[in-house]
């Protein structure tokens, strides 16, 4: 029995939990490779034209895994509480996959989380264990260990973030969903460019989630999408410690287009670059914009230091 885990969309939210859970239960799994042109092309040839880039990429990862595993693990995330709202695409993924791959006999292992209907992470892990023939108590133990691993990983990232903020290098706050910023095909070239230019990246998603959600209230009390609120909270918290902010989103994203427009209208005291990435063939256009943005920031900083 092999479980396929697509390296797309909410993979970057749950990877530590899933991997540790399966390891503890001694269940074999395969993770699709880093996104590359082939995976992007697979996904975009299957997806409807107006689908957002991360969703196309996700479909490409699923397509890659189909003949290599028995089940595909797919999250369906409704939210973690009454005020938590997620993009509707996170909720519809399983239905979309059943429909898209209906001729390929796809078998999905759902990871359902929606606290308003009492579908918790724990309950979902126990259901997964049951489907795979594991006892409840074994799944419970595996979940507890996996949760601890998630907490440790988060703590490490938060500590790294605090250390990065302490050094005196030039810093950019990178603001975007993990499946954009951490994806090799979407965010990878941007990360490499920033590193090449000697700029320290402060990852907005490394901030403590409850804290960032809370901080977002200084800018908006009505933003419905949890992940966007968390990103806004990180801007509120770190904008005075960085030299500029990069908003990284994907083409055709409704929540980001609304949230980013609001951020640019409300945050006036820090340079902001709004980058919208499509399934581009190259990053030449982005490279030019990114370089001029960083050049201007560094020039201004040097002038202030010299005055
Ligand atoms: S938040 Fe935007 S990029 Fe993410 S799945 Fe929804 S529409 Fe796509």
Characterise this structure.
With 307 residues, this protein is α/β, with parallel strands linked by helices. It folds into 2 domains: 2-150, Rossmann fold, CATH 3.40.50; 167-306, 3-Layer(aba) Sandwich (Rossmann fold). It contains 12 helices and 8 strands. The protein has helices at 11-24, 37-46, 53-65, 88-100, 121-131, 136-166, 178-181, 188-196, 209-215, 226-238, 254-266, 284-306; strands at 2-5, 28-31, 71-79, 108-114, 171-175, 200-203, 244-250, 272-277. The strands form 2 sheets. It has a 4-stranded parallel sheet with strand order 2-1-3-4, with helices on both faces. A 4-stranded parallel sheet has the order 6-5-7-8, sandwiched between helices. α1 links the parallel β1 (2-5) and β2. The chain is globular, with a radius of gyration of 20 Å. The protein starts with a strand and ends with a helix. The mean pLDDT is 93. The structure holds iron/sulfur cluster. Residues 52, 54-55, 87, 89, 177, 250, 253-256 line the site of iron/sulfur cluster.
Main traits of this protein?
single chain, 307 residues, alpha/beta, Rossmann fold, 2 domains, four-stranded parallel sheet, 12 helices, 52% helix
The largest sheet is: 4 strands, parallel
The poorly predicted ranges are none
Succession of helices and strands: EHEHHEHEHHEHHEHHEHEH
Shape: globular
Q: How much of the sequence is in beta strands?
A: 5-15%
Number of alpha- plus pi-helical segments:
12
Number of strands: 8
């Amino acid at each position: 029995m092999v479980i396929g885990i697509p390296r797309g969309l909410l993979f970057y939210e749950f990877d530590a939990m899933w991997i540790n859970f399966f390891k503890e239960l001694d269940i074999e799994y395969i993770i699709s490779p880093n996104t590359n042109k082939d995976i992007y092309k697979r996904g975009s040839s299957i997806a409807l034209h107006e689908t957002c880039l991360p969703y196309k990429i996700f479909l490409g990862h699923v397509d890659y895994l189909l003949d290599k595993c028995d089940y595909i693990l797919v999250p369906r995330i409704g939210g973690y509480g009454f005020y938590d709202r997620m993009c509707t695409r996170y909720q519809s993924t399983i239905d979309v996959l059943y429909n898209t791959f209906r001729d390929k006999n796809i078998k999905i292992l759902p990871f359902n989380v929606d606290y308003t209907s009492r579908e918790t992470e724990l309950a979902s892990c126990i259901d997964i264990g049951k489907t795979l023939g594991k006892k409840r108590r074994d799944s419970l133990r595996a979940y507890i260990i996996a949760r601890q691993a998630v907490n440790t990983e988060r703590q490490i990232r938060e500590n790294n973030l605090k250390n990065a903020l302490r050094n005196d290098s030039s810093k950019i706050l990178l603001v975007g969903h993990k499946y954009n910023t951490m994806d090799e095909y979407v965010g990878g070239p941007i990360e490499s460019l920033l590193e090449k230019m000697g700029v320290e990246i402060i990852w907005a998603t490394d901030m403590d989630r409850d804290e960032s959600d809370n901080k977002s209230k200084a800018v908006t009390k009505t933003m419905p999408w949890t992940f966007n609120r968390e990103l806004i909270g990180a801007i509120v918290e770190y904008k005075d410690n960085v030299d500029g902010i990069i908003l990284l989103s994907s083409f055709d994203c409704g929540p980001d287009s609304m949230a980013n427009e609001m951020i640019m209208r409300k945050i006036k005291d820090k340079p902001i670059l709004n980058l919208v990435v499509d399934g581009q063939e190259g990053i030449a256009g982005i490279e030019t914009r990114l370089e001029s943005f960083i050049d201007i920031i560094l020039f201004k900083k040097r002038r202030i230091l010299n005055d």
